[in-house]
Structures are given as C-alpha cells and as structure tokens.
Amino acid sequence: MRARCNISTSTTVTASALIFLLAIAGSAPVAAQGRGPLPGPTSADLHGELGDGEESEQVNGLGIDEVGLNRADLGDSLRRDLPTRGSGEEADPLPFDPADISSHPFGVDPARHPRVVHWIRYFSENARGHRRLAGWMRASGRYADMIVEECRRQNAPEELLWLVAVESGFNLVAESHAGAAGLWQFMPRTARGRGMRVDDIIDERLDPEIATRMGIAYIVRQQERFGDWMLAFAAYNAGRGHVRSGMREANANGFEAVDQREAVYTNARDYASRIVAIATIANHPHLFGFDDVIRDDAITWDTVRLPEGVRLSLVADAAGVTTEEIIALNPSLVRRTTEFDPTTVRIPAGTFEAFVAAYDQVAERYGEEHELVQLRFGETLDQLSARVGVPARVLRAINGLRGGTHAAYGDELLVPTRGRRSLSDEATRADVVVPPDAFAPLGRRRVFYRVQRGDTLSEIAANFGVTAGQLANWNAVDADSALLSQTTLQLWIAPDFDLSGSVVIPEEEANVYVFGSEAWQAWQESSEEQQHRRRERHTVSAGETLLGIARRHGVSSADLMRWNDLEDADRIRIGQELIVSP
What we know:
Strand content: 5-15%
Structural class: mainly alpha
Distance between the termini: 46 Å
Strand order of the largest sheet: 7-6-8
Number of helices: 23
C-alpha cells in the first residue's frame, strides 16, 4: 500500500500573493512563438540568418489574435474592420489629446507612432474593436495580480500584462492552429528548448505560474538585446533573427526607424503596436470609453502537496468541488493525476481545511492507486464499467467526463484499483440478422460488431483490417449513408487478427438469422409474441443506475439502451419508465 499523502498545511497560495512552488530546469528565456505563415522569407530562410551561434527560433507565425482567439478568425476580422495603414499614412486627427496621456507605457509616446495611433483608433472607435478590448480587459482580472507581481519581481513593466491579452485573451488553455498553447502561447519545441516539460503527461505551457515566469524572462531578455520594448515585442512575434537581420539590411535601430523603413514584417510591427495601444488605453480608460469595464475576479487557489498517482477526481471529492474545477486549476496535469512525488496541486481558495479533514476518508472509497485502461474499439463507457467493475458515473467523475462527453476508442481512462464489484459481461447469446447471399471469403473467420453512436463504415473497416467496400458488400448497406447505432455488422477477418483491442461478438456466441429465411420468420414471430406477452417495465428509483437495473432483470445494459432509445447510460432520471424485457 502507498503511504498516506504528505499534505502541506503551511502554505496557502493565491494569485494575488504568489509563491512560485513549481520550478523547472534552467532559466533560459522563452523562444519566439510560431503561429502560422507570414509573407516574405520562409522560416527556414530566417533560421539561416540567426548566426552568432544562437539557437534558431520559430519565426513563421502570428500572435493568437492573428490566427484566432480560441480558434476564431480574429486576425481576419481585425484587417476587415480597419484597413492597415503604414507609417506616415495616418492623416486623420489624433483620437486623443497628447496632453491627456499622463503615462507612456514602455516609454513610448503614442502620438509619435502612427501605427500605434491606428490601433488606438480601432479599439476605441470601431464597435467590434471596442467590444474585443473590453472583453480582454474584463478577462485580465483573472490573472492580472499574478502577472503584475512577476513583472515586479523581474523588474519589467507591469503593462506586459497586455501582451497576454494579444496572445491568448487570458484563456489559460487557449491553443492556436499552429499548436501554440497557454497564456503566453508557447510552441512545444520552443517551450522544451527553454526547460519546460511538454508531453502527454505534463504540459507546463498550461501552468500559469511557470509560463508567466518564462514569458516575462524572454521579453526582458529581448529588450536587453534590442534596447527597445517594441522591437522586443516584434521579436516575440516574428523571431529575433528576423528582426535583427531586418535592422541590419535597413541600417535601422529603434522601432520608429524600423517601422518607417518597413524593415520587419507588417504583422510583427502591428503586433508590437497593438500591445502599446492597448496598454495606453488601459492606463487611461476614461479617455477612450472603457471606464465602465469591471474586471473578472482573480482566480485564486490554495495548494496541497500530494504523492505520485493521486487522481484529480479524488482531490475534488476531498475538497468538496467538482472534478472540472480541479482540472481547470491544474490543466498542465494532462492525465488528470499527479505524476511525480511530491506534486503541488491547486485547489480552490478556501477549501484547504475541508480537504485536509476529508482526504483520508475519501481516499478509502476507491483507493489512491489506479490503473490506465484502454477503451476498446466499439466499447462504450457502460461496457467498460461492466468490464472493470466500477460504476460508469464514477469513471466519468474520475476522468473529468461530463454527462454528454464520450471517450474516444483507444483513450486511456483512469480506473481505481480498489472498491470494484465483481461484474462480468452478459453471457446471453446475441441475436444477429444477416443479409442473404453474403459472400464468405475462404480462410477467414466471422465475427459480429455492434455499431456505436458516431461510428462510420470506413473507421470500422480500418480497425478490422478490411475495406469499406467489403464491409458494405458483406452487410448489404449503403456505403454513403450513416450507420444506425446498435445495428450489427458481420465481418470476415484474418485468422490471426488481434481482437484484444476491439469489442466483437464471436460467431459461436451468436444466434445468426438470415433475413427472409424460415428461421428468421419463426424468430420474428416468436419475438413479437414474447413482446406482446411479457414486455416488462421498470420505474427508475433514486440511486439506481442502468447497469444495476440490467443486472437485476438479467439483461445487458446495451439491450436496455437499444430497447429504450437511450444514447447515454448516465442519462436516466428518477421516475422514468424503462422497458426491461425483449
């Protein structure tokens, strides 16, 4: 047995009073982020221009606002709402009185930069731009205290907060089409290059504290290299190699000269200008119509230190909150379990005492330890429940699956090793109807597959090593039409085909009826008589599950779902009347 967890009772952490408990190896700055194609040289061309023995960086991308915040077409909408103007093309009066600008973020006087003015006008005068920035300003409250505190720790301007607005909109799990993720939108390769762990177990890009520390460190280093915050932003967006080579070619230093001579990509110059524009507006909200924006409450947490192998669902039970709440605070734990000893886990602020009091009792219910069980092809969560002896609702809670969420075939699900019931798959023979004159290939064995919701002919065929055309011919189905859930298909598979990863009905365990035959007619008549004679029904009571009802009546849960047109085993309600006999 595993030793009880070592719960830390001495540290309570909130985003406004941050103590960095999760350290990662190295202190190198974070590389610039790739977000998608830019005009001009390819990223390979630019990698060759880095020189000086420095590691090449991703330079072929945009900020997440260009590829789309939460995968929306934000970049296209920005360009559609307000055509981009180059330096020197701004002819309209300033949208503000320079005398009213009491502070210049990053030391930049916005009145001296037409491109910054351009974006101030967009966010303050364009309806869509105003709504977008108001949304970012509201969302900034979630992590503003944490980000500002880290800025102060690294002697960086507090307005770096608004780089996160442009990158992710303060969405902790934002992901770009190019694969950048987290508040600061790190690409996997560049994150790993800076000492962050990114794999199918831990993704530290999604840890707000680690990502913030590394993102600010990178920006600070770029500012030290270029001596200009706006050039540092351009380097974050397009890569320092591109910015440096552009400055050399144009014989320019300072963002103003680089912008006038168009020495770096327009996207990168707009990216830097947007950050300054937003920071200027945020510092003077009353001048630009944002004084009524109320920021979201800060996301705060307490922390506990747990041993390896503790499920987040168990943490949620002990803290008295939902698994989704714990996952939202710990998205970097990709497998929804602690993966090293000890692991610092965040729980909602104010739940620490309840967690300490309840943890041992909760851990006794299904145990701390678990195993990963792979969902076989054609297997539902209800069938997995029967296979492992754990109620489906418990499997959903442990794995953070909401009521309507379906795990995909091949997914590895957490299953507790204790508290299981001894359940076995139903032993009743399955009735299967097959079309007449189906061609049976020589040297192959026949099995039957019960179609699950969402299955396609091509996916089924690929799983069993046959073609979609063969599968359609063997079952006389239309290859272009959708398959009906809970119907059965016959397959002839290779004798040595491994079926351990699939759920099938062996031929020897099936009652096979050829459609239209005398045996089929007799079966139909018998089935109809039985249905009229004994169509038993059951009224659902509090605490009952579909699996329990199926066991009580000696039928399979799959039959109950089919007889009652149920799509989800967990979607039964108190007082519902279910058909429980054929």
